Give the backbone structure.
Amino acid sequence: MLDLNKAKKEQFKYLGISAKIADSIIRLRQKHKITNFSQLRDITGLSISNFEQIKRKTVLQGDNSLHILNVTIQDTFVYSDRPFKLNIEYFNGSKQPVALVAARVTWAGEPFSIEQEIKDSHKGTVSIEFESEQTLPVGHSEFSIRLHRSDGAEANFQKSVYVLPSNPLSLSLSPAGATVTGTWSARGTHQASSDTYLTEIDVIIANGSTVTVAMNRRTEWKFWDGGIGGSLVESGTFDWNVNVNVPINGTWQGRIAFTSPRGSGIYNKYNNKEDMTIEIIMTAKDDRRVSGSITCRVMLAYGVNIIKVGNFDSREGLDLYSAVDITRQIYEKRDITFRGVLRWIIDDTRAGGFRILDSETEFRDLLRSWSVPNDYIDVYVCQDFNWSTFNGYAGDIPGPASKGGDKDGVAVDKTGYSDGSGVKHLNIDILSKLIGHEVGHYLGLPHVTDSNNLMLSDTSIRGPDLTYDQYRLMLPHGYLVVG
Amino acid sequence: MDKLRNQKNNFIDNEPEYVIKGGAKRASRKIDLEKFPAIRHRQKVAAMLMNNTCGNEPSRASKFTQEDLPILIQIAQEGGPYTNPLLRKQAIRSLRQFRAMEVTELLVKLCSSTIEHDSIRGQALISLAFVSKTVTFAVIQNFLLAQDESISEYTIAALREIGDDDSLLILRDLAKKEKRINIKMEINASILDVESRLGIHVPKSKVRRPILRANSPKVDRQ
């Protein structure tokens, strides 16, 4: 969002506005403050689409809205174990002052919050200080920023940060494809066609220095039983097929896939459901040595049929599968993964009234009318719920481990919204937990009252946590198999 | 605990736990929110809106007071990528509890806005049906026979919510003109629903939408 009365000339190009039109707008606001979009109508050459873009992506004093315009890191980067500051730039169109700023930090450990009063709200900026007690380790962190105005208005912003090493070089491992924080495990998956186990991990090397670090391609790997230094299961080396250069204040990422045939040490461990520790060791050209480790194990797994009910815009489709990927990561933190995500659609012409669910009767009719004949959980993602205050429903707790009848699936609201450009999106964060919550019911979980837990009834403040007791409760479900 | 887990599923988990440098906890820094009554009020209203939003518990729709109205209007207007669209929809839905000019104006603005997502527009239209029948009839003139399936469906839902002789006439008229089979079925189901509520036609069993046929969805290639 841009403040139309303060936006710089070069910022107008992001709205698709030509330099000539931008000059006209700036001249207009020099004469008198723009208080209404209709004042722009007299500008020669301003097309309807330009006007629409300005209306969508700019704000005016007096429109009563509150927006966070940008969040930046003071000193550009966050370094491990060092205090840092976040600068928040905002627009307040009301005379009511902005009173409070809060940041919730999601990182590898337990989430924490910083709340701070705003004394001088007319500045349009505020800094949140993370002191020595709130420093972060190397890795990915998410900052959920919330501004509160004294009349109750709110504005939100999400900022992702990769905390760089202050040492200044580090190596970390994560399950392949994972993008959230957390201490989850890599997974060994059995490949029936080749009778092998496949283990895929991502390697991230972070460089906190002001020179590019060149790494040797040769990489050492070890599978340990009982932790590093315990009993060595297998080890070896390989060479990356590209040059490994870690940019200044940046990260380099690569993926390793281990294929372990029957009879190998790794195969035998996996087959006995034993976990192992993978250690990866690399050296820089200047001989600095970095290493990282991660636990790997076979996991219990279930599959999901993601069924769009009605047509989705292209961006909505991408957001849906991003949300499903995060649902997988939520379950992987509790050692349950997806053995597959199959994509289905009941298009507009066939979905009829099921696009918008109005009642339990309609939900049951949906389950009776449609089904995917496999042993995956059917997840219907509907355009909307117009059914009491609900936005998700499970066929039963637990749901059946077979198809047929009116209990064999779950349904969720797709959580749609339009961005400033009018592009339709889904709220990935909310949707990932909504799907995870309803699938949790299907696997046998009831509601709980812990606000960080996935099974909290309230969709707004629900967290991603699953407890060990909940893990045990899901174990007997027939759709959960060793994957 | 691990022992119990091993008994349950025979997994052998003997690797050391991942240790985060500096520990897994960081100190939060909180301030007393009681000093900010409006912010507290907002939190209370938001909790009421999202209370019991999962259908696997009985519905407990919250009752809001006139004091809550400014906050509800505020939440109903807050859109964008970092807001919760479900909270916003619940706020729009809750506005149907109020007969006020500012509510009518906001709902008309939201359901008519092409900037808003279909589901926001649709919920605003259905809420408008509860707040003002006359205004709803005026607004839906633009939506009748809309090409967009969502808007058609929300329009039918709004007419069904009004559920009087006038809306029945419009629904019957729509049924004659509508060419799309699925929308036509939705209109017919709504006509039966309204007729049964008006006592014109009392079906032997509860009115239900016709089931198309037991079927498998198509593979999504998007």
User: Anything to note?
Assistant: The first strand of chain B starts at residue 218 and ends at 219.
